[in-house]
Amino acid sequence: MSGPEWGDVASWAAFALAGGAALISLKARGDSKRSAAATVRAADAAEASLAEARKSADGAVRSASAAEEALALQRDEAASRRAAEEDVRRPRVALAIVFHQGHTWHLINEGTAPARNLRLLTAFDFQAPDVPPNLILDPGDVQPLRMLAGLVGSLPTVLEFTWEGQDQPVRLRVPPKP
Questions:
Q1: How far apart are CA 4 and CA 2, in angstroms?
Q2: Within a 13 Å sphere around the CA of 134, how many CA atoms are in the beta-carbon half?
């Protein structure tokens, strides 16, 4: 033998390849640990993003609900305002009693709507004024009321009337004779 024996070349080549494979394996293991850590961080970030997205969605739902409620309230207010405006423009009966002369007073419709089927409800001690049945008192019209007090009774200070659309009696003050 001429020098130290190092064995055959194939064994040494296998040994070198095994060492290289071990280094590559260690490198790959480090890369896979970093990849796994990055994957965990990405998953955590995705969960945080999902939580924020849910909060944002909940906020959007609350905001949409509030907007719907505000819109419904605005619609209700607008409807109420329109109804009030229509009610103001609606023609109305406005009756008044004024003294005319002697034993006669005038029942006047000072409103903008006719009083249909006008009825006098007040009871009299003596003779009630003559109010025709189914009386229609148009705006501006006058109905004379002749009222006489008897020896025992006196004239009422208030007369009560009803008409179509006004079932609750309306009390009208009877002005005294001058």
A1: 7
A2: 0
- Write the DSSP string, 160-172: EEEETTEEEEEEE
pLDDT digits 0-9 by tens, 35-48: 888 888 888 888 88
Question: Which CA distances in Å does 17 have to 6, 23, 25, 26, 88?
Answer: 17, 10, 12, 14, 103
| pTM to 2 decimal places | 0.55
Domain segments of the chain: what residues?
8-90, 95-173
In 3D, which of 87, 94, 81 has the Cα closest to residue 139?
94
- Tell me how long the chain is: 178
Alpha-helical segments (H) within the chain: 9-89
| Cα 125 from Cα 150, distance rounded (Å) | 7
Amino acid at 73: L
Pairwise CA distance, residues 70 & 168, whole Å: 38
